[in-house]
Automatic annotation (TrEMBL), chain A:
This is WD repeat and HMG-box DNA-binding protein 1. Core replisome component that acts as a replication initiation factor. Binds directly to the CMG complex and functions as a hub to recruit additional proteins to the replication fork. Residues 872-883, 931-943, 991-1001 have a biased composition (Polar residues). Residues 1001-1069 form the HMG box domain. GO terms for biological process: DNA repair; DNA-templated DNA replication; mitotic cell cycle.
TrEMBL record, chain B:
This is DNA replication complex GINS protein PSF2. It comes from Falco tinnunculus (Common kestrel). Belongs to the GINS2/PSF2 family. Residues 78-180 form the GINS subunit domain. InterPro entries: GINS_A (IPR021151), GINS_bundle-like_dom_sf (IPR036224), GINS_Psf2 (IPR007257), PSF2_N (IPR056784). The lineage of its organism: Eukaryota, Metazoa, Chordata, Craniata, Vertebrata. Residues 2-61 form the DNA replication complex GINS protein PSF2 N-terminal domain.
Length: 1114, 189
């Protein structure tokens, strides 16, 4: 088994950090410049015990339940271990101690201080102190002779001395190091070490070599070096058996030598090349813990396991491999260098897990421990190592965590395949873990001494109450939906792998069912959809069941499963498509529909992952769009709009504060755009207690230059587009959609386009303007044309006009087919109002309006604002308006499709003056200020493109090919308008007619209107009981019956009228006109509410004027 | 003001809850609340939080400061915790700023109704009571010295409404009485 380097994790704040193991090796103890000592159960321990020992801790040592620390108040303190209670001060210096150590039996400590002194103190009696004077500079490091005769010390004065403890004399001194003034400026902290056991050798890191001095003669026996060492060595540490020596350099290299053979058996590079300042061997296992000057803690496992003795015979190989460590056990003076794998050939998983409880998350989560190492592999490794020793050219090799490679092969390394996982679960080896956390609820699993149980909790208690289940079968996988709980366990020796479903929404009494997998088939992933459950097994099969337990489809997977997710009728399976190289995974994805029409949408396409990352979460957004997250925190989403490609929508790492912080994704919502996740400090996943809280992140597409206005708006626009894709999908599949949200998004998109348009206009980028206009809807194009002509870009306006006309003709050919399609859709769909049903409305209203002329919503908006403001209080004010009028009004509001409207609601009052703005955009930018629910009317007016149809909702059959020069009207506004029509109809229509005549002041009318005025009397005589709305309706149908020539005549009439009007208009200055209008408006309103109704025809006529403006050129 | 009134005011403070039901935004005179999504934290006033909690419609997330000490957390936070607040309060002669102007009321309300959602509820109760006692003792002491030295005015910073109410009425009335007594005394001299 190769050595593994676990990812480093945050331990302390930046600064010198020391690390040691406790006597049994059950925990790692670190101290750092934050003054805390932390006790880590293992490297994955998310909640290490902290003991505050001082303001800064320089060094710590641990033996026999005593923790000694050198802290910044110049003392050496004792704390009890593991309780951490202070147990007195052992000794004091005039400066802080730099290094403290225990002797081999733990009775004495030695401390070396910056005040040039070294002290040896008895632990039990601090009065028995011995002081060693002689260094001329701060003492850097110390080492006790295991036989307790000598003490070695290194100092900033450049000397390394050996003292005789008994008489405190200096036995020998070597000028080995560079001189310096201070510990901070020292090139190396020169942590030296005596060989444990015999104490025969003293190892001193001197620049780039480790010098070994022989005891007694004090001559340099040999040097250990390696070509890869480019910077001076900082720390050395002997393995407890005294056979290996580890050294670490200031540039983060860690090397391990076999001292006897002088062979470098291990090389490792710190992931960030930080200076390693603490190094400690596990007392039993072949692990090295190390700490760097940034306060991070790392662990190197299975040191020397990839190695073999010189015997190259493959047959004898394994035996030797085993013998290697057996022999060691005997040799070891400590005798406790336990072989972690008694039988590497057998590849016993259990052994590994039992003996190495500190196995890391990463390994467990993704790397399938290559326990079943074959002989060839071992040979490969060993020969490689030999080769490395020979020619030392494997610079890239040591950086790789695993060395499973072919002999003399220097190419890309295969990546261990990521293990199957359940989305939203924490690692299975934890005693308390989340089995699932999704948008429905949480399943927790407790597996400790007292209890082995599963807790199911629903976010929404109306789905089901919380449940507590015993976990006698040892389920490890789970999924949760609004219908059922799905659990699965792997097979044991006696029992087959089981799928267990608790279908709590079932209406009969039998809520549970269980299915046994065939022999030798283990469930590896499970998921639930609507009405079905699925599991993927080790036999590369996906089995689909109904939620009631009927076996359904079975299909084979092209590779071992990684994860599965279900939503509605969709099933997504991620599997290993092949072997990845150099840390990359090679995954494929299948997406299929399990509904009535069974089809595969993604046919095993490769899954795009960030480099050297693996998959951490797979699922669907609440709206049903497939998403996944990789270990680099990139969230990707299926972009159905661009041929089912994946688009990165968020980088959760950007939101993290620390390097080892992560966000654990629990759900994705497209409307509103929310990424729900749990922030985890210093870990990849949250602990079950304290209960983690969900945070919401926003999405951000990785567009370029998002700091600029343009980039920002582009990002917003495309994000809005991407997150609206689900609407089309839902429509296509016959789900209900939220019309309001959709129109809101469309509006937002159009606003952004308009802003971008304006920006490009300002920058004189007319071509870009046209490109942008191409993305706009029709009436926003109108706005754009208006804007262009206002800003005197006539060429641009001309082009836009052409483009608009082209679009119209394109669209004009479409409606026939659309209509058929629409009928078809309506038959099957619940969604009441789709865009199709709106098309005809548009046609009709435009039929009349287009031929005339009009103006865009800019004026309309300005003029209507006072109305909005006035009408809101109206609903409550008494006496200001006649009761007659108020009643229908409030009725309108209630019945509007807008849903609940709160009369109490405090809505931001628009204080903007009602002066019409010269800039079209000014009015646009105001819209977001209004809250959507302020009143149905306000909503109505939020949509600048919305033209109020004077005609009540016509039947679809009335659809005619006509101009499409106005955008679709959202249903809500349509309805309200209809209501308003009825309301106005309640008043005598004569009032209305006169009002119209009064206010219109000879403004252009549509052909239909002119016709209607003439024929109104006829209609009324035929059907005397019709109200205004119905009159118009009736009029519409009659008008349609007329021959096209007749209609043309009316249209011509209307045009003539409008042209003359227009001429008049042009003579006047526009702004004054507007102001006049507004003033008039206000006056009218102050008069009485009846008169305020006049604004309606006014609005229409302004519209009419606006479109004339837009089209008079063409 | 009655303590009940002060408590009523405190109920306007916002706390975070995790609802277990789904509800659209609700519009009230005091402003909009929600929308409530099951499992998603949302800020609501204390009165609503308690109401929902009593109906078991939510889980309460205690305010940041409502925690005993920093122990266990890896990264030092700027937010002070109750233990430090208490120690600080004891150390200083003047009043230290409190984490919330309604710390006493909130602690009482939340611990009474949602103690199962607040880890170390008992310790928090004790700590807050300690802090309160220290502060009220300081208040009495300063009132005492105020009266003793016959000062005309005094300024006390960082007092919370509840604390002012413990002595406010009494002190002003007492001062009134003393004034009367003194003015009555003087003619006799």
């Amino acid at each position: 088994m190769p050595s593994t380097q676990k990812p480093m994790r945050y331990g302390h704040t930046e600064g010198h950090t020391d690390v040691c193991f406790d006597d049994t090796g059950s925990c790692i103890v670190t101290c750092g410049s934050d003054g805390d000592v932390r006790i880590w159960e293992n490297l994955d321990d998310d909640d290490p015990k902290s003991i505050t020992v001082g303001e800064k801790a320089y060094s710590c040592a641990l033996k026999n339940g005593r923790l000694i620390t050198a802290v910044s108040n110049n003392t050496v303190q004792i704390h009890t271990f593991p309780e951490g209670a202070p147990d007195g001060i052992l000794t004091r210096f005039t400066m802080n101690a730099n290094h403290v150590i225990f002797n081999s039996d733990g009775t004495k400590i030695a401390a070396g201080s910056s005040d040039f002194m070294v002290k040896v103190v008895e632990v039990t009696d601090s009065s028995k102190q011995k002081t060693f004077r002689g260094h001329d500079a701060p003492v850097l490091s110390l080492s006790f002779d295991p036989r307790d005769v000598y003490l070695a010390s290194a100092s900033c004065d450049g000397s390394v001395r050996v003292w005789k403890i008994a008489d405190q004399t200096c036995t020998t001194s070597w000028p080995l190091l560079q001189k310096c003034n201070d510990v901070i400026s020292a090139k190396s902290i020169c942590r030296l070490g005596w060989q444990p056991g015999s104490g025969k050798l003293l190892a001193i890191p001197v620049d780039k070599v480790v010098k070994l001095y022989r005891r007694g003669t004090w001559d340099s026996q040999l040097d250990l070096s390696h070509k890869s060492i480019t910077q001076s060595l900082n720390v050395v540490a002997w393995s407890p058996c005294g056979q290996y020596l580890a050294a670490a350099s200031v540039d983060g290299n860690i090397l391990v030598w076999n001292v006897e053979t002088q062979e470098c058996i291990e090389r490792m590079q710190h992931e960030k090349n930080y200076t390693i300042c603490g190094l400690a061997w596990h007392p039993k296992h072949k692990q090295i813990a190390y700490a760097d000057t940034e306060g991070s803690l790392g662990l190197l496992e299975n040191i020397g396991d990839g190695k073999k003795p010189n015997d190259k015979l493959a047959g004898a190989m394994t035996k030797d491999y085993n013998d290697l460590f057996d022999g060691e056990d005997d040799n070891c003076s400590n005798g406790d260098m336990i072989e972690p794998q008694s039988s590497p050939k057998a590849g016993a998983n259990e052994d590994n897990d039992d003996l190495m409880p500190t196995l890391g998350l990463l390994r467990r989560a993704i790397i399938d421990d290559d326990n079943s190492l074959d002989i060839g592999m071992i040979k490969a490794n060993s020969s490689l190592l030999e080769k490395e020793d020979d020619d030392d050219q494997a610079g890239g090799f040591s950086a790789l965590p695993s060395s499973t490679q072919q002999p003399f092969y220097d190419g890309p390394m295969p990546t261990p395949k990521q293990k199957p996982f359940q989305s939203g679960s924490t690692p299975a080896h934890l005693a308390h873990r989340f089995m699932v956390w999704n948008s429905v609820g949480i399943i927790r699993c407790y597996n400790d001494e007292q209890d082995n149980a599963i807790d199911v909790e629903f976010h929404d208690t109306s789905i089901h109450h919380a449940t507590h289940l015993p976990n006698s079968l040892n389920h490890t996988m789970a999924d949760l939906s609004t219908e059922a709980i799905l659990l699965a366990c792997e097979s044991t020796e006696e029992l087959a792998s089981k799928l267990h479903c608790i279908h709590f929404s079932s209406w009969d009494t039998n809520k549970e069912w269980t299915v046994d997998m065939p022999e030798d088939e283990d469930i590896e992933a499970v998921c639930l959809g609507q009405g079905w459950a699925a599991c993927a097994t080790s036999a590369l099969l996906v089995r689909v069941f109904t939620v009631g337990g009927v076996q359904k489809e079975i299909f084979s997977l092209p590779g071992p499963v990684v994860s599965m997710a279900g939503h509605g009728e969709q099933l997504m399976v991620i599997y290993h498509r092949g072997t990845g190289f150099d840390g990359d995974q090679c995954l494929g994805v299948q997406l299929m529909e399990l509904g009535k029409k069974k089809e595969q949408i993604l046919h095993g396409d490769p899954l795009s992952l960030t480099k050297k990352s693996y998959l951490t979460w797979v699922g669907f957004s609440a709206e049903g769009t497939p998403c996944y997250v990789d270990s680099e925190g990139i969230v990707r989403m299926l972009n159905r709009g661009v041929g089912n490609t994946w688009i990165p929508v968020c980088n959760t790492r950007e939101h993290c504060k620390g390097r080892s912080d992560h966000y654990w994704v629990v759900g994705i919502h497209e409307n509103p755009q929310q990424l729900r996740c749990i922030p985890c400090k210093g870990a990849r996943f949250p602990p079950t207690l304290p209960r983690p809280a969900v945070a919401i992140l926003s999405f951000k597409l990785p567009y370029c230059q998002v700091t600029t206005e343009k980039g920002q708006m582009e990002e917003q626009y495309w994000r809005s587009v991407v997150f609206l894709n689900h609407v089309d999908y839902l429509l296509k599949n016959g789900y209900e959609i939220d019309e309001n949200a959709k129109s809101q998004s469309v509006k937002e998109q159009q606003e952004l386009l308009m802003k971008l348009f304006a920006l490009s206009c300002k920058l004189e980028r007319e071509f870009r303007c046209v490109e942008l206009a191409d993305l706009m809807t029709q009436n926003v194009v109108n706005l754009a044309i208006k804007y262009a002509s206002r800003s005197r870009k006539l060429n641009l306006a001309q082009r836009l006009n052409e483009m608009a006309a082209e679009k119209v003709s394109e669209l004009a050919t479409a409606p026939e087919d659309e209509e058929d399609f629409r009928k078809h859709l309506n038959a099957g769909y619940r969604s009441s109002a789709t865009e199709w049903s709106q098309l005809p409305v548009r046609n009709v209203q435009q039929d009349q309006e287009m031929e005339d002329a009009g103006e865009t919503g800019a004026y309309e908006e300005a003029e209507e604002t006072p109305e909005v403001q006035e009408q809101r209080p109206n609903t409550f004010s008494k006496g200001v308006t006649s009761a007659e009028v108020t009643t229908p009004k409030s009725a309108v509001i209630v019945s509007s499709s807008q849903g609940r409207v709160n009369p109490f609601k405090v809505s931001p009052n628009r204080k903007d003056p009602v002066v019409p703005s010269a800039n079209v955009l000014d009015t646009m930018s105001k819209y977001p200020k209004k809250t959507s629910l302020s009143s149905s009317r306000a909503v109505n007016k939020q949509n600048p493109p919305v033209i109020k149809p004077l005609i009540p909702k016509p039947k679809s059959k009335q659809a005619l090919a006509a101009s499409f020069f106005q955008a679709r009207t959202p249903t809500s506004s349509e309805k309200t308008v209809e209501e308003r029509e009825e309301k106005t109809g309640n008043e005598s229509h004569q009032v209305k007619v006169t009002a119209q005549q009064n206010t219109e002041n000879g403004r252009p009318k549509t052909g239909f209107q002119m016709w209607l005025e003439e024929n109104r009397a006829n209609i009324l005589t035929d059907n005397p009981d019709l109200n205004e709305a119905e009159v118009i309706k009736e009029g519409m149908s009659r008008f349609r019956i007329l021959s096209s020539e007749e209609r043309m005549v009316w249209t011509e009439k209307a045009k003539r009228g409008s042209v003359s009007d227009l001429a008049e208009d042009k003579k006047r200055k526009r702004p004054t006109t507007d102001e006049d209008e507004v003033k008039k408006d206000q006056e009218q309103k102050s008069e009485d509410s009846n008169v305020s109704k006049k604004t309606k025809p006014l609005d229409r006529s302004t519209n009419v004027r606006l479109s004339a403006f837009a089209f008079k050129q063409s | 003001m009655e303590p009940a009134e002060v408590e009523f005011l405190a109920e306007k403070e916002l706390v975070t809850i995790v609802p277990n039901f789904s509800l659209d935004r609700i519009h009230l005179i005091g402003g909009d609340l929600g929308p409530f999504n099951p499992g998603l934290p949302v800020e609501v006033p204390v009165w609503l939080a308690i109401n929902l909690k009593q109906r078991q419609k939510c889980r309460l997330i205690p305010p940041e400061w409502m925690d005993v000490a920093l122990a266990g957390s890896l990264i030092r936070q700027t937010q002070e915790k109750l233990e430090e607040i208490r120690d600080q309060e004891r150390k200083e002669d003047t009043f230290t700023p409190m984490p919330s102007p309604y710390y006493m009321e909130l602690t009482k309300l939340l611990l009474n109704y949602a103690s199962d959602n607040i880890p170390k509820a008992d310790e928090i109760r004790t700590l807050v009571k300690d802090t309160w006692d220290t502060r009220v003792a300081k208040l009495r002491l300063s009132a005492d010295s105020f009266v003793r030295q016959q000062e005309a005015h005094a300024k006390l910073d960082n007092l919370t409404l509840m604390e002012i109410n413990t002595t406010g009425t009494f002190l002003t009335q007492a001062l009134d009485h003393m004034y009367k007594l003194r003015t009555n005394l003087q003619p006799a001299e």
